[in-house]
Amino acid sequence: MNFKYVIIGGSAGGIGAIESIRDIDKAGSIAVISDETIPQYSKPMISEYIGEGAKLEEIIFRPLRFWEEHSVNIFSDKKVAKVDVSAKTVMLENGESIGFEKLLIATGGKPIIPKIDGAERKGVFTFVNLADAKLLLGRLQNVKEAVVVGGGLIGVSLAEALLKLRKKVTIVELKDRILNLILDMEGASMVADAVEHAGVKIITGRSVTRIAGRILSEKQVGGVVLDDGTKMSCDIVVLTIGVTPRIEVIDPRQIKVNRVVVVDRFMATSAQDIYACGDVAETFDFVNNDFRLLPLWPLAYVGGRIAGSNMAGDKVGYPGGTQMCSLNYFGIPVISIGVVNPPKESGYEVLAKLNPESRTYRKIILQNDVIVGMILVGGIVNAGVILDLMKNRIPIGEFKENLLSEEFGLIHLAEPLRLEMLRRN
Known about the structure:
The protein is an alpha/beta fold. Helices cover 23% and strands 30% of the residues. It has helices at 12-24, 46-51, 56-59, 66-69, 130-139, 153-164, 185-198, 297-311, 383-391, 415-424; strands spanning 2-8, 30-33, 72-75, 80-84, 89-92, 97-105, 109-111, 124-126, 145-149, 168-173, 201-204, 208-213, 221-226, 231-233, 236-239, 243-245, 261-262, 274-276, 281-285, 290-293, 324-329, 332-338, 349-355, 360-367, 370-377.
């Protein structure tokens, strides 16, 4: 089988590519290969699938008819064995071979599985995709206590979902705070207070070294042992350490790879007619002004859009993204963008304000009079104005004193800049 366009991965990046291709090329044949049965759902919403009882239709990113409407040949529940660059073929594990003229690698990430004694016991789960969520949901009826290993975005969102199902939840985080990649100590402490107030126990600075079995059923999870010897009972353990890029189908002798696949501003790899996006590609960070891994769902979609346009013959450059998170767990809204934990003595200027009365926290990071990062906890109104200033590298000298105000917005900008910003948006 041969197709003009082949896309490995049917999630955000793959869907973005398909939509861009069809904007330009209405007739070229497209094939999507995915190891999931239904790939076009929103991965950030799988916690809601558990905690809110959301139906599949509610977390679908694009409707089931999407493939048919865009004339896509979908090879679902199929695993790729390797990509042969010279032969321009994708080899599947079942022995099938699919030829391509243009290829997009959008394989996403897979869960990081730490080496823990007893991790093979029944009742140990990962939580990265819909299949993980379904397996976990099928076990929860008889679960009273759960240990979530990892206090990042996935771990905290899952803890909230389990709490809504009236489960006793403990988060175990190796670092000194939860959400350590997106928040500083002050911001993380505010979120942790809300999490613990809701009823979740948080243990930081510790790791799980052993998953113990039950007294009468050694193969079933019965508890965990921490590195300091602390023992805790539980019915399930969910590993939410994070994800690692799925680049095993790529031969680094044929496609240049650093930590992940190297791409240019057009999402093209070092191999002719092969592109990559999402969790497997180093993309341009407009804050750091270099290429790095930014494994974020919205950026994967944008990267796919750019890749699809270039695959179809249009020359479109990727505008750049950066570390960016917007969340609302346990009733506390948070926005984190760009550099949030600058190293000391690094030339960054940090503006910060904690308001105990309104339970808000604002932190703005500057470099050479330009905003390069921010944390907003509790009050996130007009965050878009600050982001626009970041993206366009606007010097903030004239309104610097107003940045920490919870009312900061367009009104604080000079009229020419305000009009320019309104035109952009």
